[in-house]
């Protein structure tokens, strides 16, 4: 396996792991995330819980997709979503370092996007 292929797969596994982990937490209805959705979007608890379920299912599907057939525009969405979910932390009152700590959530899908873009 070439070094280029190794880098590609390291990024793919990293991105998939991040989205799988977040997806499962969302499907399970992580209490903080439901509270933040209520706070930021103004949803009631039932709507926030349903929203989290849908987000979780999409995240799991994206994790599978990045392992089976990565699609560049989807990787851009993943970078945006990773950035947004990291940014939510300071928006709900957590320290900015909670955002900084999650830079890889958006940087890894963005790096994979540019990896594929450079090959085209």
TrEMBL record:
Transmembrane segments: 9-28, 48-67, 74-93
Keywords linked to the UniProt accession: Membrane, Transmembrane, Transmembrane helix
Biological classification of the source: Bacteria, Candidatus Zambryskiibacteriota
Protein name, UniProt field: DoxX family protein
């Amino acid at each position: 396996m070439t070094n280029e292929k190794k880098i590609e797969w390291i990024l793919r596994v990293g991105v998939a792991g991040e989205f799988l982990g977040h997806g499962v937490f969302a499907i399970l209805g992580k209490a903080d995330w439901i509270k933040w959705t209520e706070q930021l979007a103004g949803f009631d608890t039932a709507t926030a819980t349903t929203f989290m379920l849908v987000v979780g299912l999409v995240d799991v599907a994206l994790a599978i997709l990045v392992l089976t057939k990565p699609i560049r525009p989807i990787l851009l969405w993943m970078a945006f979503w990773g950035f947004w979910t990291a940014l939510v932390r300071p928006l709900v009152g957590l320290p900015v370092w909670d955002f900084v700590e999650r830079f890889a959530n958006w940087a890894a899908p963005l790096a994979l996007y540019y990896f594929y873009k450079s090959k085209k």
